[in-house]
Design a protein that fits this description.
The protein is mainly beta. It has one helix at residues 10-13; strands at residues 56-66, 73-79, 82-87, 94-98, 105-110, 117-123, 126-131, 136-141, 147-152, 160-162, 167-170, 175-179, 186-191, 193-194, 197-198, 202-208, 211-216, 221-225, 232-237, 254-260, 265-270, 275-282. The chain is built from one helix and 22 strands. The strands form five sheets. The protein has an eight-stranded mixed β-sheet with strand order 16-17-18-19-1-22-21-20, with no helix packed on it.
Length: 285
């Protein structure tokens, strides 16, 4: 990604030190024509058939891993045997590298307190994180989490993922945007629909086997989306995977999808959840 000289230096965006220890009215009716008025012959057009609504699948839990209930998860990915997690909330935002078996923080870098951290994505040797409403993000060296440069964008920052050529981002609407990974400029977009209905509040993202998987804010369902046209291919319903008694509050929602491409494993978690779940998709029970 190209550094933008007009922006804050990366060191001002994140704290310099890093730890290596560890959100119709009906139209008016036309006046009736007089009974003796000639009526024009019309051919009524056949109504368009509604688009097919996507099927819904269920899940089974393959394994469970610990997760810190202090982490307000906004970004989540798996790389080289480790979890990378972007966290939100002013004063608590940042990025951390976790040991899956123990949830031990292996590396960490905090944002300064005026930023609300959001999604993360790896690109080459770097990792990117952006922010909710401050229109600024940072590229870091993935090995050290050292800030390299910042970038800007319009609109809100929510989730991020990538395919082999482009970054893919969400902003809380029904639109997913494709971005140049070197400049962060938008190079295309898709509008996500289930049948004819737009699906908004798209949040954390993951790219899995040619599909975009998306959390939807406050839903315990994951949308599997075609990157070609935005059509929801199917849903994965994970309702009840974490008991309500284990959630801190109403904002302890499902938000976090990670994929181990080498082993085909799918992991999900949520904001301040105590558990990361490895799941397998199957028929809905």
């Amino acid at each position: 990604m190209r550094p933008l000289s007009a922006l804050l230096p990366a060191a001002a965006f994140l704290l310099v030190s890093a730890c290596g220890c560890k959100a119709s009215a009906p139209s008016a009716a036309s006046s009736a024509a007089p009974s003796d008025a000639p009526k024009a012959a019309t051919t009524a057009a056949a109504p368009a058939a509604p688009a097919t609504v996507a099927p819904v699948y269920g899940y089974s839990v393959v394994a469970k891993y610990p997760h810190s209930t202090d982490s307000y998860t906004e970004g989540f990915l798996y790389k080289d045997g480790k979890f990378y997690e972007g966290t939100g909330m002013e004063g608590r935002s940042g990025i951390q590298v976790l040991d899956p078996a123990t949830a031990k923080v292996l590396q960490e870098r905090k944002m300064t307190s005026n930023f609300f951290g959001e999604g993360i994505v790896d690109w080459g040797p770097n990792i990117l994180q952006w922010t909710w409403q401050t229109h600024i993000g940072v590229a870091m060296d993935r090995a050290t989490l050292k800030p390299l440069h910042t970038f800007t964008y319009t609109g809100e920052g929510w989730g991020m993922t990538r395919d082999n050529k482009r970054l893919i981002t969400s902003d809380g609407t029904a639109t997913l945007r494709f971005r140049n990974p070197e400049t962060f400029e938008e190079i295309g977009h898709i509008d996500v629909k289930d049948g004819d209905k737009p699906v908004d509040q798209l949040n954390e993202l993951e790219y899995i086997n040619g599909e975009i998987w998306a959390n939807v804010w406050h839903l315990e369902r994951i949308a599997r989306i075609s990157p070609k046209d935005g059509k929801v291919i199917s849903w994965v319903d994970v309702s009840g995977i974490l008991p309500a008694s284990e959630k801190r509050d109403d904002e302890s929602v499902l938000n976090g999808i990670a994929y181990d491409e080498a082993k085909g494993r799918i992991f999900i978690t949520g904001k301040q959840w105590p558990t990361i779940f490895e799941i397998k998709v199957g028929p809905k029970k």
